[in-house]
């Protein structure tokens, strides 16, 4: 008899226990005023945000955190005009601001990114962007000369794409261009890095600048063998104040090729699926470039005019002076599969 009376009470307790989390959620909703019948609270109602159609979202950003480099390419268009590098904590602060403003892809560039603290500076930024900020794509552009296997062991898992610059597979031509240091062989190092990318599951990209010295070269055989996920082919670009003009550190006038010559190079390699060409016009306005002070650089007038730093005025204000052309960014295929999780690397 006693047990019969006791049964419904046990069932009630069991029911409460089983549904504890939903009940707690309900109580929380009531207290926060989300419950449909709850008394109105004093919390002001948030108005829906009206999106400014002119607002530029920094989806993909190139952060040139250093201008220092160990190479001396004659056409370099981001030269060592300062030796400044932001302290790590300041750089991280800026990266958080960019993420909040909508950044999905960050590319670290220079100068030579592996020069600072023997690659640990860029390694820590890569790790931070992937682990803490959870950016879908984190990449680096490097000349490759200072990269070691140890670096891949420490930071490789956080890196989606590594792009290495290579303008020629003829070592003599690389030397003429200025891509080299002492007796180091640029092409041999490129091959090593390609293997490490395979071993540590990092997508591998090649960037080539087509100029007076390599415009007649046929790179088909080597590119097919290396099989990069993308082969970016740029037309040598003149930027006043960087590689031309009185205040410039380089004078690239002798490296320049005509649009027709550039088309000739592209025609020779047009059967290659990984080829992504970029003419001067496409290149000039379709990148969001941040310099070593985290200032956007506007290249529209043929020279790099800086905004104020995002650390001083915020992303939204600074980006208005970036000269960024989103249509051109999309036209040049700036948005592609850029996370290694989606790339399904089959090497
Ligand atoms: S490797 Fe890149 S940053 Fe260095 S000199 Fe050459 S083009 Fe400039």
From TrEMBL:
Keywords: 4Fe-4S, Antiviral defense, Endoplasmic reticulum, Immunity, Innate immunity, Iron, Iron-sulfur, Membrane, Metal-binding, S-adenosyl-L-methionine, Signal
UniProt key word Nucleotidyltransferase: no
Keyword Transferase annotated: no
InterPro entries: Aldolase_TIM, Elp3/MiaA/NifB-like_rSAM, RSAD2, RSAD2/Viperin_antiviral, rSAM, rSAM_sf
Domain Radical SAM core: 55-275
Membrane topology term: Peripheral membrane protein
GO biological process: defense response to virus; innate immune response; positive regulation of immune response
Stretch forming the signal peptide: 1-22
GO molecular function: 4 iron, 4 sulfur cluster binding; catalytic activity; metal ion binding
Domain of life, source organism: Eukaryota
Cofactor list: [4Fe-4S] cluster
Subcellular location: Endoplasmic reticulum membrane
GO cellular component: endoplasmic reticulum membrane; lipid droplet; mitochondrion
Family statement: Belongs to the radical SAM superfamily. RSAD2 family.
Name of the protein: S-adenosylmethionine-dependent nucleotide dehydratase RSAD2
Organism, as annotated: Pyxicephalus adspersus
